[in-house]
Specification:
heterodimer, A: mainly alpha, 4 helices, B: mainly alpha, Rna Polymerase Sigma Factor, Chain: A, Arc Repressor Mutant, subunit A, 9 helices
Chain lengths: 131, 193
């Protein structure tokens, strides 16, 4: 028998061949040193994988949130965002009003003050002209 | 799959489809640890918890479409592997550096070796070898890594790996062979240094 491919030997080590294929390779290995070396190298690698597989992993306590709670949480977030946006709009509007009111008051006082000054000046002019 | 296991799976699936919260908790308890371990091995530990959450969300959403063609564990592994592969694809679009990422190594540094009767210096040597092995596995292309992790570390059979990844057994055999070849050459090269 010709040497089986390394792919076949890899499957042989995993015992993933048919019974007849396994038997053929068993017989071949008795006479072929090269394939025996390949098989032992593969077995050494796989035993290293087994050590790696057996290592204990510190698994965190994963808190899995059920779907319903998740959707409720999203709904709460959306509601909060809408509330904040609404609040911001209302506050912005009332600020605008306050500024507008302040402007109106300023204009009122400014005009009155100008009238007062104008009146004062007029009185003065009239006094001068009277004199 | 044994008959008893199939019956247990069938009953669990029926309860899950009916929206039974206890069945969902049962599924979480049974698989969260396994999924976390698989995610760490395939995609690193940085976002492992989020990826497990994402996988559970997909399981929950797609429960109604589960036909029971395979076992629950195969199905869970399939979804988890897909989530990891999507994540790696997204990550690779952002950066190619993940190919050389030491995420997995970092994840494993907290791990403990199985209890042995080895002397401390021998344990250190084994630990060193395991680190090299992890690096070699982490550097594999994603398709080869998935096959190797599922078969050699998660101890699934060729058929189970084929079911999880949606490929034929022949492809599993060939990918596993190339993956082992690459790991062996970089691992043995590293050990010889």
């Amino acid at each position: 028998m010709r040497c089986p491919s390394h792919e076949q030997l890899s499957a042989y080590v995993d015992k993933e061949l048919t019974l007849s294929q396994m038997q053929k390779i068993d017989i071949h290995l008795q006479d072929c040193l090269t394939c025996r070396i390949e098989v032992s190298r593969l077995e050494r690698l796989i035993s290293n994988f087994k050590v790696l597989a057996r290592e204990s992993i510190s698994i965190p306590n994963i808190h899995l949130v059920p779907t319903s709670t998740r959707s409720q949480r999203w709904a709460a977030v959306v509601a909060l965002v809408l509330l904040l946006a609404g609040g911001a709009i209302v506050l912005g509007y009332s600020n605008e009003n306050t500024i507008a009111t302040n402007n109106e008051e300023f204009e009122y006082y400014y005009n009155n003050h100008n009238n007062y000054v104008r009146n004062q000046n007029t009185d003065f002019i009239s006094l001068v002209s009277w004199e | 799959m044994a008959l008893e296991e199939r019956l247990k799976d069938h009953s669990l699936v029926q309860k899950l489809k009916a929206g039974d919260d206890e069945a969902y908790d049962c599924l979480c308890t049974e698989y969260s640890g396994k999924m976390y371990r698989l995610v760490c091995r395939l995609a690193g530990s940085d976002d492992a918890e989020d990826l497990v959450q994402e996988a559970f969300m997909q399981i929950y959403k797609s429960m109604s479409s589960f036909r029971g063609d395979c076992s629950i564990s195969t199905w869970v592994y399939r979804i988890t592997t897909n989530v990891c592969q999507d994540y790696l694809r997204r990550k690779s679009r952002r950066s190619w550096r993940h190919l050389f990422s030491l995420d997995w190594l970092k994840a494993e540094t907290n791990r403990e070796l199985p209890s042995t009767d080895l002397e401390p210096h021998e344990q250190a040597e084994v630990r060193d070898d395991m680190d090299k092995l992890r690096l070699a596995i982490a550097a594999l292309p994603p398709e080869q890594k998935a096959v190797l992790v599922l078969h050699d570390l998660e101890q699934l059979t060729y058929q189970e790996v084929a079911d999880v990844l949606g490929i034929v057994v022949g492809t599993v055999k060939s990918r596993l062979f190339y993956a082992r070849k690459k790991v062996r050459s970089s691992f043995e090269g590293g050990v010889q240094k």
